[in-house]
Every structure is written in C-alpha cells, then in structure tokens.
Amino acid sequence: MHNKFITDLMNLPDLVATDLIQTEEYLVFVADYRKNYVKCPVCGKKVDKVHDRKVQVVQDTPLRDKKVAIRLLKKRYRCSHCGKRAIPKRIESITKYSRKTERFKMNLLKQTDSRDYSRVAKEHGLSYTSIQNSVRSKLDTLIKEAQLATLDEVEAISIDEFAIKKKHKYAVALTDPINNKLIDILTSRKKDDLIKYFNTWPKKLKEQIKYFSMDMWSPYKAVAETVFPNAKIVVDKFHLVTTVNNALDKLRIKEQDKQTAANRKKFYKSRLTLLMAGEDLDDNGHQRLIEIFKLSPALEKAWELKEEFRDLLQIPDVKESIEALNHWYKNVSQAKLNLFYKAKGTLKRWEQHIINYFKTRITNGFAEGLNNKIKLIKRIGYGVPKVENLKRRVFLSLLSI
C-alpha cells in the first residue's frame, strides 16, 4: 500500500510513494508505478506480469532545503499472450535513462537563466557536464516547440545580423516582426547558406510568407527573391535612418577637419547631438548646434535634411509619404551636398521596397531589441561565442518558463 501523504508530498502524477527516508542531506522517496501494467507493443494486450526489477535512484527538485531523490523500483514486463519479454514501462516524470526528473531539469534550466553552469552544479552537488546535458536536452525540446508554434502563424520574416566577433564572424537572427517572436538564430549570413536553410522549410510555409523585412544588403534580397515567391521585400526603417545619419556624420568629420583646433573640439563633442532627434534636444543641445552651424552652413543644411527624412518616415498616409520622399530628393539635389547625394542614390535604388515599408509599417524593431539582449548575454559570458550556446541562452531569456 502506498502512503497518501507522502505521495502527495512527492507530487509526481505517475508514481506513488511507499516510504520516506530522511537523512541529514536528503529526503528519499521510495516509489512505485501508479499503474502496474503496460500495453504489449506486439499484440496490444494488457500486461502485468513482471519480467525483472531494478532499483533506480533519480534526483528531484530540492524540498525544504534538502536534496530530494526518488528511489524507484523500475520494472520490465512480459506478455503471457504472445511471449514478448522485457517490455519497459514509460512514464512522463522521468525520461528513458535519465537520472533526473523532468521538473528537476526545468528547475535547473530556470536557475541557469541568470547564473553560470558551474555555480548551479556546485549548489546541487552535480558535475558541470551533468548540468549542461540536462539543461540542453530540456531547453532544446522547449525551443523546438516554440519554433513550431511560431512558424505555424508566421506571415512576415525579419532578418538581421549581429557580430559574434566584430569584423570576423557574424550570425543572423530570424524573427517574426508582426508577433514579435524569435524564429531562429543561424551561424551564417552567406546567401547560399541562408537559401539552403530556408529550403528545409516546407513549400507551404515558404508560400505563406508575405513580407520579408531586411536592411539594404543585396544578398538578403537575393535570398528573399529565391526562396519566398509571395513575399514583398520591406526595407527596415532603422536602416534607412542609419543611411542618412551616416551621411551626416561623414560630413561632420569633413567639416571638422577644416576648423581650428578649438573649433574641431566643438564639432567632435557635437557628434551625438547632431544625430539626436530634434524634438529630444535640450537647451544645451540646441546651443551646441547653433555654434557649429555658424561655422558650417553645409552642416546645418545636412542636419535639416536628416530631420526632414525622419519626419517623412512618421507620415501615416502612404501617398503623402511618397510625396514627401520625392520632395526630400529635390531638397537633397538643391543642397548640393555630395555625401547626401550618394545617400539619395542608395535610397532611390531601394525605393520600391521603401514604399513597401510605407504600406506595411513593418520594421526590424523587435530584432534590434533582440540584438541588445544578445550583446548583454555575450557580455556576461555564458559559453559564447559558440552560436548554438548563444541561441539557447537567447531563447531561454524569451521563453515563459
């Protein structure tokens, strides 16, 4: 007979407790199967004849500041109908060959969200490898489930690279910009590698993608056109602003070099102020710009063009947005600033995809926020720069567990 109080305390749905042994360090639940039979995999009949028994000790989540172990009498059965022998009993609480309960693995997983494996291992008297294997097996299952759920409803894809090792190695974050969900993290941003990855997706899934949000990088455009026949390419708003900001900053450097030593210092100190949104400037910021604009009328023209471009991206009406963009082109031509004329040429080449942004308002905003999270995870450590480890850490930070 099992002890109901101890069984309730153990709280594992497919096991019952027959005894509880307490030591200075451990609570040991002596347990048996709640249902002492299996279904024969050969003939399908109910089987309750025991073939052999073996004691298995499984570590469980700590309780009342004590480590917990489940001492399970593991059984295999034999079928008296067809003669099949050594039929194992499968239970949900403990996976095959595991020495930890599933809830203990989940508990370890939660702890490693903010701490390294070594510290968690030391607290539980386990090895680093044991923690790593348990966490990875549990997390990989959760990641796969999350990816399937996301892909089931995805209509738009955002693609954005981030540096694993600056100027040497880049990875790619794939996200759903409409539902703000991570789809995957890939180890390469090369066109052929991305096409190979997307070609593993079912044809139906590729056909359901309506929008492909990206920066102005030709290999991404080639991937979208090759893999997603129904997708409209959308240029990300943040990269449009970056293109114009880069032109402004290069002009600032050019104008700075013409100045005296004292004025060069003023220009340098104003580099971030120039890139700030006009409405966010305080009195000191405005005064700083007034001083350098007196020294460089060209920089004032460039700043005004930057602000005008930012404003046109906020216009909600598609037709008005397009008209404002064309008006900006004219103002760039009239300003006769070579660096802005180059930026205008870049935007002209991507104009149809910019108009797709006006129509959809899809951005890489979630991906940009994700990149900041990735930078934080990399800074803390956590076993990166291995991309697979980084992927696990990023998903862990996003999953609701």
UniProtKB/TrEMBL annotation:
Pfam families xref list: DDE_Tnp_ISL3, Zn_ribbon_ISL3
InterPro entries, sorted: Transpos_ISL3, Transposase_DDE, Transposase_Znf
Domain Transposase IS204/IS1001/IS1096/IS1165 DDE: 157-393
Residue ranges crossing the lipid bilayer per the database entry: none
Residue intervals of the Transposase IS204/IS1001/IS1096/IS1165 zinc-finger domain: 39-82
Protein name per its UniProtKB record: ISL3 family transposase
Source organism: Halanaerobium polyolivorans
Organism classification: Bacteria, Bacillati, Bacillota, Clostridia, Halanaerobiales
